[in-house]
Amino acid sequence: MLRSFVHRIDSRSSNPIRDARSVIGICQSLQSARGEVSGAALATELFQAYESLDSAAREAFFDLLVTEFSPNPVEVGRAADMYRADPSQANFVRLQAAVEPPRQELFRRFNLAQGGITVLVGMRRQLLKTLGAHPDRAGVDADLTHLFRSWFNRGFLFLQRIEWRTSALVLERLIEYEAVHQIQGWRDLRRRLEADRRCYAFFHPALPDEPLIFIEAALARGMPAKVQPLLDPEATIVDPAGADCAVFYSITNCQEGLRGVSFGNFLIKQVAEELGRAFPQLKTFATLSPVPGLGEWMMNGDYPLRVADHPTAIRKIIEKLRGGQPPEPMIGPAIQVELSRLCAYYLMYARRGKAPLDPVARFHLANGARLERLNWMGDTSPAGLTRSLGFTVNYVYQLADVERNHETYANAYGITASPEFQRLARMGRRAYESRPQPPSVDASD
Amino acid sequence: MLRSFVHRIDSRSSNPIRDARSVIGICQSLQSARGEVSGAALATELFQAYESLDSAAREAFFDLLVTEFSPNPVEVGRAADMYRADPSQANFVRLQAAVEPPRQELFRRFNLAQGGITVLVGMRRQLLKTLGAHPDRAGVDADLTHLFRSWFNRGFLFLQRIEWRTSALVLERLIEYEAVHQIQGWRDLRRRLEADRRCYAFFHPALPDEPLIFIEAALARGMPAKVQPLLDPEATIVDPAGADCAVFYSITNCQEGLRGVSFGNFLIKQVAEELGRAFPQLKTFATLSPVPGLGEWMMNGDYPLRVADHPTAIRKIIEKLRGGQPPEPMIGPAIQVELSRLCAYYLMYARRGKAPLDPVARFHLANGARLERLNWMGDTSPAGLTRSLGFTVNYVYQLADVERNHETYANAYGITASPEFQRLARMGRRAYESRPQPPSVDASD
Amino acid sequence: MLRSFVHRIDSRSSNPIRDARSVIGICQSLQSARGEVSGAALATELFQAYESLDSAAREAFFDLLVTEFSPNPVEVGRAADMYRADPSQANFVRLQAAVEPPRQELFRRFNLAQGGITVLVGMRRQLLKTLGAHPDRAGVDADLTHLFRSWFNRGFLFLQRIEWRTSALVLERLIEYEAVHQIQGWRDLRRRLEADRRCYAFFHPALPDEPLIFIEAALARGMPAKVQPLLDPEATIVDPAGADCAVFYSITNCQEGLRGVSFGNFLIKQVAEELGRAFPQLKTFATLSPVPGLGEWMMNGDYPLRVADHPTAIRKIIEKLRGGQPPEPMIGPAIQVELSRLCAYYLMYARRGKAPLDPVARFHLANGARLERLNWMGDTSPAGLTRSLGFTVNYVYQLADVERNHETYANAYGITASPEFQRLARMGRRAYESRPQPPSVDASD
Amino acid sequence: MLRSFVHRIDSRSSNPIRDARSVIGICQSLQSARGEVSGAALATELFQAYESLDSAAREAFFDLLVTEFSPNPVEVGRAADMYRADPSQANFVRLQAAVEPPRQELFRRFNLAQGGITVLVGMRRQLLKTLGAHPDRAGVDADLTHLFRSWFNRGFLFLQRIEWRTSALVLERLIEYEAVHQIQGWRDLRRRLEADRRCYAFFHPALPDEPLIFIEAALARGMPAKVQPLLDPEATIVDPAGADCAVFYSITNCQEGLRGVSFGNFLIKQVAEELGRAFPQLKTFATLSPVPGLGEWMMNGDYPLRVADHPTAIRKIIEKLRGGQPPEPMIGPAIQVELSRLCAYYLMYARRGKAPLDPVARFHLANGARLERLNWMGDTSPAGLTRSLGFTVNYVYQLADVERNHETYANAYGITASPEFQRLARMGRRAYESRPQPPSVDASD
Questions:
Q1: Cβ-contact A298, A340 below 8 angstroms
Q2: Which one, A53, A129, D21, D420, has the greatest CB density within 10 A?
């Protein structure tokens, strides 16, 4: 809000290097003795100067962060030699000091002024966009990531229920951030916060108005298969006392600048525990998730089951779905079964390295969830059809098994799945390939 | 409170190594894949096990933290070589990863369970006591310090006024922690929180009941010279509206385990700003400080003015004061002047390396304060007589000058002092030595 | 929200009397000894039963509150006789007890259950609608009013700033309740809470989500004359630091059931004080108010200046405005002046009894404000044209004069107005009548 | 705290009437039109003036509240006649208005200034002390009581747990107010707030630092019989998880000025419910209460069992206990049984009118508790011996029976007691009297 009144460096300035240098100059003051006393004032000055940089100047600024604030290779080498020769703690401490880039202390001092974290998180968001073209900036990113891992340590975050009583400032951000199933204004949001819904977010004490990640759950009778009824603002409100399933239908990381500092796994489990306490009659905690890599994989996957190899009928329907078109209502059950097997196969056997290829599967399986059920036409939105070919999948979080599942996965990427799901995937495999299969664990053991 | 109900490992266990190994085993689990899912439970288990170690087992535990959780020297050396050969960011990131000890992630995971920070801060407090005898544990200390500097970054702390309305839990800790002028029970504390006093502390959001550092101020008419009237629980309450001076008479770091993570300088200045807003008529912000190194220095300082060289009368009175005895009421003004010159000399010219020898002087001068006035018999308590020979000194914080003073000090240890104070110190120097003098700055410029 | 799950008495029940009697039965239990112990449970039962009454049954219920819960006339008479014969305090206390209707204690016990106040305030809202047809229910209304005056005593209310950070639950109610200038959804509301606006409301501790009254202010340079620019969601945000006037453009009583328990006067003055503290450069605190009785009075007022008597040109334009049509842009200045005189005359001389006829004038003048300025075409909305003939008026709250103005008004309905406003009104009077004029006070004295 | 800086009317003023009149003058302003606008300022002025009255002037002030602020008897009589002739609601409303004394509105306006409630509650405390000598002031007391019943309505109070984390300001008041078992300083208080204790208080939102009533409970294994172990600051802390009984050992009304506005019954039951939720394993909720009227009744009761009629051995021991002396350790079991029967008889049969004579019995029995068990030497403090002859009694609150017990009591003062207790009391009665007995209810029915 204040931004409108802040004086900005004239953006038509023709000299990005000079502008960047001027911001770097403030950075140097902030890091000097002056910064110890007048850190807050200097940091505030810095934020305004940084915000006023145009994109060319920002690029120059990032480069200067690399060239001017990295550790001295000669000193690093010398300290490393000493440590190798004598791996004493004194030498180790000296080495650590030599390796820590001056950037680290600079970034820490950002926090001396109000809003410093916000500026830093925003800076990393912008930096990330440039990393592809500028791999030499990886050290700056590593420093920010190191700092954020420490600052946004799980122990400092607090879980807060988001309800209609919550600040409009926060609610507005939910509308803005929700990435999985866009929120269509205040009426839509209000429905998602009614008596049969729950929404929780993690916050950091220094950013009390800024959700870091949030999750939306519906309390239902039976495990839902379809997304659209959950998103309908006119959907009848269910009496939560009669629900036996909590279904997580959306989880959104809000801060692109915190990428790689993950708290999603903590969030799901903590919310499941909260809901279990509040509604002891809940028996199932499950997600209603997309299969976002399915469409792409069916078209271009380097597997024997490339679309070209599918029978024509299947190929046609896949192409239609990829175009965001719903299938004929009269589509034969055989084709449905066929596609379901393919999807189950994809989720259990398609890999990137050793890990599952599907990003959503990777996330939930690594968290200790179990592949439970596949739902044909669970998401009929254009995006749902294009990316997931209309499928949704329920991952189940059974709190007692989560640790075991997680270890199975962590050790050898073993996937836990319900017997029914395994059967489907095996049928897919038998039909299409004859490779050795990765380990899988039967949840019914 | 809960500790009484916690099961403890039998302290008569005859095998400290085995006990320490068992705790290290939990540490390893916490750091493994299991720790990602069940971190909170493992960390809680770890805390209880750690708390139950007897001192021999704790020693063994510290040693295992060195041997089992330090970085691999060979890998470090290899990464350093690569960086030296090609100081690219990719190599730098690799080097950083190699240098970061596994301890760091372990310590971060402590925070997954309630109370993790408290355990870690306590662990460092115990570790610090052993560092003298075990310099090889410096790396563990460096890791904890690095983590605490990040976690207790100034930007996360919040300033809170402590008043009689504050939680008894917090007030009780003030009574326990106050190190400068002990608080004699609740009645004494209550007086220190009356209308003419102010007390402020820094807190961390994760430790809302635990003051990190606190400062006590009195609102007074004129700059006080004597400590005892401020500490008298029966002292008449002054109308704060008539005060023109805020005097800081005590500042206490509460957490030994956070040594080296300083926030004292921020506290004084922020409190001075708060008080200035609340009481615009305040003209002076000053401390009423001891000169804690004076007595020792007069007896044993390696200066020409060792006690042996003093005239007999002076020597006698110094010896008396060192013994905690007040001087005769009839002590001649000449002797008083003599001692004052010595004290002023000590504060301005006695050095440890280039920095002032007196620790309190070091703290306030580094913060940008100015030596303002010396007060004979400002503290007549036994400790005050023994350590400070009864002197108190007022350091003045003039917010407009603090940055300049700090830079003068930071560049070449230049000391800012009032003209009167400089005159006294110069007289001391002229009388006792003829060495070159360090730079000093005249506050009246 | 809960209402949907509550069992309701079948609304097709053909017997309203029986339904009402059944609710009255619960009332009697609540008032009995049982109510002392099980008040909360009984009151909750009562609320559900009351809420389930259809309108016929509610009518019957109100009648039963009169017949069954009024004081006994015989006892009242006897107690009054005793008091007249001997006006001792003992007799007075006895009389008071006789006069207090059993309803009073019944209503007090509503408050034993969560939500009791809300039910009672809602009950009075429904009762008020029936008072015209049922003057015999005035006693019930008097009891509720007595109770509310005590419960909603100014000392219990707290002023709270409403901002975008406020709970959406509260903000939604602002959208719902705003009566003066309807809020067109969340975007409109957000604009009214930007940096150049302020909104404040009174709340009661027992109803923390329920604003009782709220006021909207704009910070402006110069005293605004026109309403529409203030209501434009696209209006540029003004830097509040440059404002010299706070203009109150809307004040809304939210609770119809609290009619007659006024807090509006406290609100305006307290908000003016708050704003004066926050923005010391503010020089003027003024309203931008409608003249809601003007149109009606010009058409039907029992004054010599009935519309029939106006010159045709004036009559035509009045009729046009009354129809919600804006005037020709080319309307002559003479007609403008003519209408302004009429309006000023109306505000200062048109009376209902001795009080001003215009309800908004009555409110602000009774609060100690001063009639400052009349603005032609200050409100060009259809309602503004129809009711106020497009006029707005600024009432000025000069805190130093408010008490004096209020007393002048309270003693003999003397109106304070600016010299310019008085001149205009006098011209109006001279032109249209020759009656004796009510006292007026010159604000320039 | 502020009081020390407030200017006071010179207390040596020789004219109490004049001082009282001057305060009454401010009262009249506060009630006038001026009071509507400048109520806060006037009320503040009034509080200071009232507080400065000496006791003679305060007496005069109370008299003037009677003579100047009572309703007009003639008007009251006229309104009552009209109501008797025609008991219409209009006439009723008129009568109510005539009967309401001007004091009522005056007192309501006290609340316009900060601290108004505190002043009023304090005023009633002082007034109550004078009522015995000045029964004509009963009307003033009735007005205050009426107001307080409305303001301190149960629905507005909030229950708050008092723990060591609570504000020292509040805790200090517990030390000050505790009337049943004095708190011996902060160490004693801290013990009463340990893990095996609970303390709860009711607060009013307008007096957040001022407990109105508080209750202290101990969590114990088995129903405690003796007071002293509960009050021992050195008592071992019990693991609350193992407790099966919550014993309320002290309940204190803090505000003498709120006498007659009772909330004690709500407090006990609400706390019992809270504790039952927090510790589901609790089976018994009981008090450990004194029998404060026993000693006096045994000496001077107008019953056949006056001390003079007792056998000498009994008489001697009663006299000894009355003197605060503990009995010989060797006292024979026959005497113990004898005294227990007397005590049981006293609690069940000794009456004042129809209600039990013992005030503590009256309170708990009216609340629906049951007489459970008598404990010989349950309280060996001097006060316990003198007043209760060393007995304690456990009243049990069985939440399921409380309503029925209360109704039994409310209808005909029927007392519920355990079979054992009844047996004891019957034996007492058989031995000492042959009168008809009041109804009693067997809890075992």
A1: no
A2: A53
The four Cα atoms D99, D105, D110, D112 give a dihedral, to 10 degrees, of 160
> ipTM higher than 0.90?
no
Q: How far is CA B283 from the centre of its chain?
A: 27
Chain-chain contact of B169 with D165 (C-beta, under 8 angstroms): yes
pLDDT band at residue C308 using 50, 70 and 90 as cut-offs: low
Residues of B in contact with D167 (CB under 8 A): 164-168
Chain C CB contacts of D84 under 8 Å are 73-74, 76-77, 80
Separation in Å, CA B7 to CA B20, B23, B71, C270, D353? 17, 15, 34, 59, 58
The C-alpha of D71 sits at a distance from chain C's nearest C-alpha, in angstroms, of 9
* Residue C435 backbone class (left: φ over 0; alpha: ψ -120 to 50; beta: rest): beta
Task: Out of C99, C136, C406, name the one closest to residue D88 (CB).
Answer: C136
Name every chain C residue with its beta carbon within 8 A of the beta carbon of A7: none
C351 DSSP β-pair partners: C356
B237–chain D nearest CA distance, Å: 9
CA distance B424 to chain D (A): 41
DSSP C109-176: HHTTSTTHHHHHHHHHHHHHHHHTT-GGGHHHHHHHHHHHHHHT-GGG-EEEEE-TTSBHHHHHHHHH
**What is the rounded distance in angstroms from the CA atom of residue C75 to the CA atom of residue C99?**
9
Tokens (6 digits) for B433: 């030595």
Q: How far is the CA of A210 from the CAs of A162, A176, A177, D338, in angstroms?
A: 12, 12, 11, 73
What are the pLDDT digits (tens) for D302-325?
554 554 566 777 788 888 898 888
Q: Which residue of A has its CA nearest to B411?
A: A33
CA dist D223 and D386 (Å) reads: 24
Closest to D341 measured CA to CA, from D374, D300, D312: D374
Yes or no: say if C270 and C159 are a contact pair by the CB < 8 Å rule.
yes
Number of CB pairs < 8 Å for C and D? 171
State which residue of chain C sits closest to D136, comparing Cα positions: C89
With touching defined as 3+ CB pairs under 8 A, do chains A and D touch?
A: no
List pLDDT tens digits, range C342-393. Answer: 899 999 999 888 999 999 999 999 989 999 999 999 999 999 999 999 999 9
- Nearest Cβ partner of C4 from A1, A167, A237? A237
For residues B332-361, give the mean pLDDT.
90
- Residue B36, both tokens: 């990602």
Q: Model confidence over B150-209: pLDDT tens digits?
A: 999 988 999 999 999 999 999 999 999 998 889 999 999 999 999 999 999 999 999 999
Beta-bridge mates of residue D207:
D204
Contact B90 A265 (CB under 8 A): no
Chain B interface disruption, residue of A99, A111, A119, A137, most B CBs within 10 A? A99
Residues in Cβ contact with C153 at an 8 Å cutoff, skipping those fewer than 6 apart: D108, D111, D151
